[in-house]
Write a structure and sequence with these properties.
The chain is built from 15 helices and eleven strands. It has helices at about 5-15, 20-25, 35-45, 60-70, 85-90, 125-130, 130-135, 170-175, 190-200, 215-225, 230-245, 265-280, 290-300, 310, 315-325; strands spanning about 50-55, 75-80, 90-95, 100-105, 115-120, 140, 145-150, 155-160, 180-185, 260, 305. The protein folds into two domains: about 20-215, Rossmann fold, CATH 3.40.50; about 225-325, Helicase, Ruva Protein, domain 3 (Orthogonal Bundle). With about 325 residues, the protein is an alpha/beta fold. About 45% of the residues lie in helices and about 15% in strands. A five-stranded parallel beta sheet has the order 2-5-8-1-9. Strands 3-4 form a two-stranded antiparallel sheet.
Length: about 325
Amino acid sequence: MSEVDLAKMKDSIERESIFVNDIKSEIRKVIIGQDDLIDKLLIAILSDGHVFLEGVPGLAKTLTIKTLAQLIDTKFQRIQFTPDLLPADILGTLIFNPKESSFEVKKGPIFANIILADEINRSPAKVQSALLEAMQERQITIGEESYKLEAPFLVMATQNPIEQEGTYPLPEAQVDRFMFKVIVDYPQQNDELEILRRMGKINTDIRVNPVINPEQILNARKVVDQIHIADNIQQYIVSLVMATRNSDKYGLKDLSTLITYGASPRATIFLATASKAQAFYNNRGFVIPEDVRAVGKAILRHRIILSYEAEAEEITTEDIIQRIFESVPTP
């Protein structure tokens, strides 16, 4: 990519990415801390991905996604997953109209731009799989008709890691469709003190103003697509993914007994698209290795299946990913 092209790209990025700082400043009126969560949500929207959140209750997961939907001025739906939920409760169904003697389509809450699937592991597999077509194909089939979902379309699913009684763990095929898995942790002491000062009132009404519309998001995605990713960076991405499958080739022989299954090719695609969105996020027209590593953990952590030996030794996917980052040569 020539210097002239990079200069043009930088101008285009600066013009289209103004909303990023606007969203971050507005969302911080409501959300204190959780910078990594906010960053990953914005990158997911820019790269047309979905986000899977794991964290204990009370960490503002729902509030974050709801506030983000208000800032994008788009349709938001929260779906509470429960054991008695049915697929039709999410997708919609056919309703018989006796006056017309015909069936009419009643669309479900999935027909929105930003979806919060709250405690997704509370519902059985049949309900979880109802999201598969929507997430992958961006369409819903009701009866014999298929309906396209409006872009942008983002699913953010949450899971409580504590209460596992009466839950239905998501199968790997479902989890793999999420671009990111973000671990939401407790806030720092200073952040929690600020939460107390700002939210410790009976009547707390903090308003945020829309700063962008869906059309601007789609325009920004076109710019993200044009961001340059050099051949050596592409090779670096492939090497990171291959190291999760054939660790011996990268000087990580001890990991071969700790990993049962490595990351899928979808991880390779997501690493590339999310890295470009990360570069856009940082007002840069080309991807650097730091962009790949910035999004890498959230993309790989739910795609590496650990062996019983790793679990017995209390080795986490985070540990393995860090070893891979340290061992695979950086371009």
